[in-house]
């Protein structure tokens, strides 16, 4: 009962990354909805002729997608890490067999087994950094997208100010001469101010705040996984990581226990096979008896038996006739 409660608590802790990611995703959707309602962000993005905001929103969607996939993968890694830590705590590192899976925790455990099999000394810190380096790079990529979005927002600001200055220049040039050009110049200047403000707003909020927090969530989850694996190895598997005769004896004992369990499974399989063969033999005997009864009551068989007796009775007469003809 206590083991089940501990396992449930571990499963709940393993879901923290996904729960935190989903909570922040709901917050991001709420913030973007408020921006769209009060500042008409969606309308401006649709009518943006510079397409800078399109790039910012596209990068944000890409970053959120990558971060979501990474959060799901890290949640799976947390489940496997807690189960591996429980096995190491109860049985030592020898209690976990080599899995050869595609998960990072499995790769880490398999690497430790390989080092132990070669009687080497494991550098746990370096091995953890190597195994989790790919996930750190993914998290850094999401953070890089956030920085690029801020940069694009600044570029949009400069571009918008340039459009504003050109519009004001045209409006001032047509002042007192052509009211139509004056209005068009002022309209162009206002559009430029809109580009400057909206690109800065969208880039700083989506990239500088929302996407960076997504990157922080996954990065913190990776660091937590590294701490869990490191603590498990240092506290519960330190004796298995140092080359010694005792470690070899423990590994041999674990191998013998594993072999014994395989032998027990094989004995159970053989016993089950014998029972199945006995059942099959009984069924075959019953089938043979039933076929014998059907054959005895078959009229065709009786007719064939009569023909056989007649043929045996006629055959000696035919042989004697042939014999006397040859003598004559």
Walk me through what this model shows.
The protein has helices spanning 2-14, 16-39, 41-46, 52-91, 104-117, 124-131, 133-173, 179-236, 238-241, 245-296, 299-327. By secondary structure, it is mostly helical. It folds into 2 domains: 2-243, no CATH class; 260-327. α1 runs antiparallel to α4, α2 (16-39) runs antiparallel to α8 and α7 packs antiparallel against α8. The protein starts with a helix and ends with a helix.
Summarize the structure.
The chain is mostly helical and 328 residues long.
Please identify the oligomeric state: single chain
Order of helices and strands: HHHHHHHHHHH
- Give the % helix: over 70%
Distance between the termini: 106 Å
Poorly predicted runs are: 1-6
Q: What's the mean pLDDT score?
A: 77
- Strand residues, percent: under 5%
Draw up the topology in text.
Elements: H1 2-14, H2 16-39, H3 41-46, H4 52-91, H5 104-117, H6 124-131, H7 133-173, H8 179-236, H9 238-241, H10 245-296, H11 299-327
Helix pairs in contact: 1-4, 2-4, 2-8, 4-7, 4-8, 6-8, 7-8
Key phrases:
328 residues, mainly alpha, 2 domains
């Amino acid at each position: 009962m206590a083991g089940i409660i501990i396992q449930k608590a571990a499963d709940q802790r393993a879901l923290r990354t996904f729960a935190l990611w989903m909570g922040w995703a709901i917050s991001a959707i709420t913030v973007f909805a408020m921006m769209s309602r009060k500042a008409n962000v969606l309308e401006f993005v649709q009518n943006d002729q510079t397409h800078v905001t399109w790039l910012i929103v596209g990068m944000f969607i890409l970053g959120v997608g990558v971060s979501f996939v990474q959060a799901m993968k890290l949640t799976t890694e947390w489940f496997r890490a807690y189960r591996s830590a429980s096995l190491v705590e109860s049985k030592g590192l020898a209690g976990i067999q080599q899995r050869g899976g595609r998960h990072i925790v499995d790769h880490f455990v398999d690497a430790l087994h390989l080092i132990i099999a070669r009687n080497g000394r494991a550098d746990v810190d370096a091995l953890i950094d190597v195994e989790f380096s790919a996930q750190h790079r993914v998290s850094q990529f999401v953070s890089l997208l956030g920085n690029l979005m801020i940069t694009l927002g600044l570029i949009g600001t400069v571009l918008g100010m340039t459009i504003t200055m050109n519009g004001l220049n045209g409006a001032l040039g047509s002042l007192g001469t052509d009211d139509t050009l004056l209005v068009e110049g002022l309209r162009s200047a206002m559009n430029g101010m809109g580009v400057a403000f909206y690109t800065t707003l969208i880039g700083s909020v989506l990239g500088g705040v929302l996407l960076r927090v997504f990157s922080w969530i996954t990065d913190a989850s990776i660091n937590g996984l590294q701490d869990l694996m490191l603590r498990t190895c240092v506290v519960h598997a330190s004796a298995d990581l140092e080359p010694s005769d005792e470690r070899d004896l423990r590994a041999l004992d674990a191998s013998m226990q594993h072999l014994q369990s395989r032998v027990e499974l094989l004995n159970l399989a053989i016993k089950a096979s014998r029972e199945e063969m006995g059942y099959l033999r009984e069924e075959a005997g019953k089938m043979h008896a039933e076929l014998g009864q059907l054959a005895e009551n078959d009229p065709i068989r009786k007719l064939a038996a009569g023909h056989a007796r007649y043929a045996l009775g006629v055959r000696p007469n035919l042989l004697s006739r042939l014999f006397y003809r040859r003598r004559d």
